[in-house]
Write a structure and sequence with these properties.
The protein has 16 helices and no strands. It has 424 residues and is an all-alpha fold. It folds into 3 domains: 61 residues, no CATH class; 180 residues, no CATH class; 162 residues, no CATH class. Helix 9 packs antiparallel against helix 10 and helix 13 packs antiparallel against helix 14. Keywords: Membrane, Transmembrane, Transmembrane helix. This is DUF4153 domain-containing protein.
């Protein structure tokens, strides 16, 4: 075995020396077996100390950052600030949950235990101008005050306000993320990517947390103690909120786990969603389901539309920005066309129900959302079509997504703040 390893090293060593003038082959050898390459390189370097190519490789293999007196990881300002925010988020969420249990406030208030603290971390990182900072502060305060001035009931207009408020707060968090570059398309695109990476990382950590919680409760049950209620109120709630701030910190600091996996998820799920959706639409036609008359089916139809829109957007944001087209682009285009077909049918069904049964808060909210999505899909489809025809680059497609994002936030704000008064 030693002889075999020695023979491999000698062979690699000879290959390094033989390909000193062939950078491409040196790169191939390095990628093939980095450890063997490094061992053989030291010998080749000793024999050829004047080689310019090997000197570059020497710096690459032995490069070290300039030594600076960095504080230990646990004492870094970013980490300490994140820890404080995570603790405050957990305490706030637990306190809000107490008042929710007393039926003094609406459950949607739990969003204020998480999103403002994530926004605070972005503000700390980005240092936005005073006008952006004051806008964030005022809108968060107004949202919290307004929400708790609404009647604590479950009328349609109030429920719609509850459902749309988190979308509006998500938009405010995006403003904190983009900071002074809120009008920059690439910064908005980075926020969309952040959401996908955050979701993957948070889900991974949450699953680990659930396994720990199940194990803990099972261990205490062996002692005859039922701690489920206490554990949920004081540990799980606190941890779930604090974990959101921790995940924000990790993703913002370029954690490679989430960043490396998201492009592959986009490429895997796009064709799966396309195939599933195609089969589903054929089945719908076959069984004769009618969204014009079946309200529940219309709701599910809109749910599918939102799901496809989200998958398509994230698939586009994770695609490469080079000019070369590939199969993923044609899959994305097909997804957009199918989503537009679904949207058109749903929009027609909603207009039919409005003309037949009259205006209600739910119908008007769904109509507005479908019109917004329809317009956005048209813009994305036309941009993609021009890209596939080599008339524009991929940035035109991303612009069709990022420039439209504020429209969804404004609609969410309108439904949240206006509907309870319009349909009072």
């Amino acid at each position: 075995m030693t002889m075999i390893r020695g023979g491999i090293n000698v062979s690699m060593n000879n290959s390094v020396i033989e390909n000193i003038e062939n950078p491409h082959e040196l790169e191939r050898l390095f990628r093939k077996d980095p450890k063997a390459f490094k061992k053989s390189f030291s010998q080749a370097w000793a024999q050829n100390p004047d080689s310019q190519v090997l000197s570059i490789w020497y710096e690459r293999l032995h490069f070290k950052e300039t030594t600076t007196t960095k504080k230990p990881f646990l004492l870094q300002k970013d980490f300490l600030f994140m820890g404080i925010l995570a603790i405050l988020s957990g305490i706030s969420t637990r306190t809000i949950f107490h008042f929710v249990e007393q039926q003094a406030i609406a459950p949607i208030n739990l969003a204020f235990g998480i999103l403002p603290f994530i926004a605070a971390y972005f503000v700390y990182k980005n240092r936005p101008k005073k006008n952006v900072l004051y806008t964030l502060l005022v809108l968060f305060l107004i949202s919290g005050f307004y929400l708790n001035m609404l009647p604590l009931n479950y009328k349609d207009s109030i429920i719609l306000a509850y459902l749309h408020l988190p979308i509006f707060l998500w938009g405010l968090t995006g403003l904190a993320f983009t900071g002074n570059d809120y009008s920059n398309g690439s910064t908005r695109l980075a926020y969309l990517k952040f959401n996908l990476e955050f979701g993957i990382l948070y889900a991974s950590m949450a699953i680990s947390g659930m396994l720990l919680a199940a194990l803990t409760m099972q261990l205490f049950s062996f002692l005859g103690l039922n701690i489920e209620d206490f554990y949920f109120r004081n540990i799980i709630l606190f941890g779930a909120a604090g974990l959101a701030v921790v995940a924000t910190y990790l993703v913002s600091n370029n954690l490679k786990l989430a960043k490396n996996i998201t492009p592959y998820l986009a490429k895997i799920f796009s064709p799966l969603v396309l195939a599933t959706l195609f089969v589903y639409l054929i089945t719908v036609i076959g069984v004769g389901k009618n969204p014009f008359l079946d309200r529940n089916f219309l709701i599910s139809f809109n749910g599918i539309l939102l799901g496809v829109l989200i998958v398509t957007i994230f698939s586009i944001t994770e695609s490469d920005t080079d000019e070369e087209k590939n199969i993923s682009d044609y899959i994305n285009f097909a997804l957009i066309v199918l989503a537009l077909i679904i949207n058109s049918v749903a929009l027609s069904a909603i207009v039919f129900r409005l003309s037949s049964y009259g205006i209600t808060p739910n119908r008007l909210a769904v109509l507005g959302l479908n019109i917004l999505i329809w317009a956005n899909l048209i813009w994305i489809m036309l941009s993609y079509l021009r890209f596939l025809q080599n008339k524009t680059g991929p940035f035109a497609i991303q612009n069709a997504i990022t420039k439209y994002l504020p429209v969804y936030g404004l609609w969410a704000a309108f439904v949240t703040f206006a509907f309870p008064f319009i349909f009072r």
